[in-house]
Amino acid sequence: MTLQLEKATTEQLRDWETSLSQEYQAYKASGLNLDLTRGKPSAEQLSLSDSINQILGDDLSNESNTDLRNYGGLDGIPECKRLFAEVLDVNPDETLIGGNSSLTLMYMAAQFSLHQGFGELADSWSSEGGTVKFLAPVPGYDRHFSVCEHLGIELVTVDLNDNGPDMDAVEQLIKNDSSIKGIWCVPRFSNPTGTVYSDEVVDRIAQLGKIASSNFRVFWDNAYAVHSLNEDAPKLASLMDSCRKHGTEDSVYLFGSTSKITYAGAGVSFAGMSKANLKAFTHHLGMSQIGPDKINQLRHVRLLKDADGIAEHMRQHAAVLKPRFDIVLKHLREGLGDTGMASWTEPQGGYFVSFDTLPGLAKDVVKLAAEAGVKLTPAGATFPYGKDPANSNIRIAPSVPSLDEIDRAMAVFVTCVKLASVRQRIG
Ligand code: PMP
């Protein structure tokens, strides 16, 4: 029987608390050790790319006849730029291929913008003196926040709605405060909500360059650009095409990587930006390296080939991931649907389900689950400075555990949510 929190009498709540406590104690006694924390690919997913290790053989021939074993090629080899330009929806001559981590590229981009500036385009953020601020749609990705926290950039939150960031708030804040120099965006299958930005939001983001100062940059982290769980998942409009329409190409940096396409630890990252931005960016980048791993770039081109090759490869990932998401959602719907205790997202791609408890309960739920042997991402992690003002958001990451482990972990999770909610209601 589903008990609805709002409608339950005090006596029903007490009975319910007793039986839930017993259920919880039984889980606790069973010595579980389950983990629904970081969103990384499972070994099964990584194995989908194992042929990459033999794919080159002795053949290092490439389009530009470069000796890939040597230094150079700071912006990447042409065939690799072409391949990942398609993922970012930019032109190949607006593309740079980096090392294995897009987070590194994002960190470098923020650091150059803060201290070195934008070549002929604009001065650095720090040259203006005073606080530098970034907009952070929430809930969001903790490592974006830590980039800013580490560089002393203040984070200002805006709501992430079902169609993307609250653009009225974003535009207003930028108009009123010229110390806001950037915004974090994960435009397709956001971490953690799975949000896909609508065409209208993409177009409004492309127009921010018209109202912001010349050294404002959108940090467009399209980490899950091709990571749909089903064929009819919503598409994302091209940010750069919109920028071209509005003459704001210099106001955006786009990022992505193959961390969740091939190997998270040995993939390639990529960035898309206007040619003027690219010139300044590669100049700065050249101060810290002579060239990236071009052999790895060629391996990726041989494995993935083209956009169709990437799509086919991603279907294999979806076949591994989708059943995991289905189990999570089944537990949530069956255990918590109609109880009035929680809400959650049902993503069509990406790596996460974003879950909201009743206000004030996320930390309790994470603690209860941990004590019963189920590890969850710390409550608050999806907000700047680790502080979720409502203390309600929890990020569920089901990619690594086995189907059976997810099944067991979610049963515990649902019990913890019910127990915390009922206890709060009783007071
Ligand atoms: N951006 C987002 C939104 C992510 O979720 C992640 C990984 N969890 C990353 C970037 C990290 O990317 P990379 O491995 O390319 O550094």
From TrEMBL:
- Which Pfam families does this UniProt record tie to the protein? Asp_aminotransf
Q: Which UniProt keywords apply?
A: Aminotransferase, Transferase
**Which GO terms label this protein's molecular function in UniProt?**
L-aspartate:2-oxoglutarate aminotransferase activity
Q: Does the keyword Magnesium apply?
A: no
Question: Which InterPro entries does this UniProt record tie to the protein?
Answer: AspAT_Ic (IPR024551), PyrdxlP-dep_Trfase (IPR015424), PyrdxlP-dep_Trfase_major (IPR015421), PyrdxlP-dep_Trfase_small (IPR015422)
Classification via SUPFAM superfamilies: PLP-dependent transferases
PANTHER family this protein is in? AMINOTRANSFERASE, PUTATIVE-RELATED (PTHR43799), ASPARTATE AMINOTRANSFERASE (PTHR43799:SF1)
Protein name per the record:
Aminotransferase/MSMEI_6121
